[in-house]
Amino acid sequence: MMVDSVAEPILRVEQLTKRFPGVVALRDVSFDLRPGEIHALCGENGAGKSTLIKALSGIHPHGSYDGRFFIHDEEAVFHSVSDAEHVGIAVIYQELALVDQMSVAENIALGAEPTRNGLIDWDLVYSEALHLLSDFHIDVDPVARVCDLGTGKQQLVEIVKGLRKRSRILILDEPTAALTESEVAALMAILRNLRQQGIACIYISHKLDEVFAISDRITVLRDGQVVSTCNTAETNPSEVIKNMVARDIKNLFPRRPTEPGDVLLRVEGLNACDDDGHQVLHDIAFEVRKGQVLGIGGLMGSGRSETLLCLFGGWGRRIGGQVELNGKPFAPIIPRDAIASGLVLVSEDRKRYGLILDQSIGFNLSLSSLETLTRGFIDRSAEVARNREVVKSLRIKAPSLESTVQSLSGGNQQKVVIGKALLAKPDVIFLDEPTRGIDVAAKLEVYELINQLTDEGKAVVLISSELPELLGMSDRIIMMAEGRIAGEFRRDEATEETLLAAAIRVTTKDRGKAAS
Asked: Could you give all domains of the chain from N- to C-terminal order, each with its CATH number?
């Protein structure tokens, strides 16, 4: 189905303005969505995307904003989320709204369970779920508990849950942040199928390759205002980025070359098993030097994160191999041991493992380095002075150190996690997906920080699922597959094709052995 460029919009927003105390989050925003269209919404964190969604979905009720919006030319007056759902708007947030201990089928039907004789018709609950999952080619058992699924499968279940309500407008907020490549492909196929059925979609993502692959039009927000709306085929990523940040970005990956020094971390023949005794890591070997960025890539489940967590003392049990940090044997039992020895980890899930969301910025910054501030009691004046310097140097945007971390944008939350790690004065920094879910400008600040760390002679190990990021910011790259090293490449010899081929080749070879 081709999107009809002259069709009457299914959704029309007129001069929407939303104010918070001291802040105008949206200013005269006008926007429309056509039947069967995938309309991408782009912008930096804090540009107004989330505020717009909350107005459209009834979280910000009618009367709390100026302006109007219409569904099929009828003014929408939403006082709650259920009002929006009633007219066919479904929102799938990055933070999933599933009940962990309930089954997939129960979650899909939650809030709209079919009944018979006044009781829930459980046979129909499970048969409907099976039918929906099959329709969208999602390989998930409807009987399985949600907590037993990976994050990617949970995201797909959330989408099916939204579609079960016969939604005509689907809003997706960073839907692929935690998906594997195969799950992203499955989601894209689902969205194209929905487009054929005339269902309209607002697609929010910082991943411009996905935006250009799936969207029909792109609207860019900046500082709460619409900067541009254009057909995807008539623009390019550079133009979209320029509109997002109000300046030309000449180099998305500004890696400064450095002269590598002595080896800081050496890993030889690392083998490790999980808590159930199953071996996950097999003969992992690499080294990283002063002033160097070692990139680690691989498909989801390849053992990348487990490798860093094992070395950090946060996962698994070593069953073989030698590790040296600064020329000395290194075998931390718990993360505190690693931090004390000069190695820190910025984990891939900042909200779950990196931050205490309801605590202040200052509280979070100090967590990994309290011992340096303590002489019987915490030296509060020294703590505040030091934390203010970190906020200034990392350009963390917040009213004060006492602001809660959960009130910050994703990019500023990530800076707090990194700042907390750097306050421990490490020699080696593990960065696991450090730019996941943050905007282009925040990514550039992370990249510049990586340059600064290597300029200071520190070693950085960078995990990324984005191959352009690995290629652009690494001096050397190793690819992993099924807990093994699949290949090692210098920056000048690596391409996206060679990196991906290495991981797939090892995976295919090992599966072939297993089959025989």
From this structure: 11-245 (3.40.50.300), 259-342+428-516 (3.40.50.300), 355-425 (no CATH)
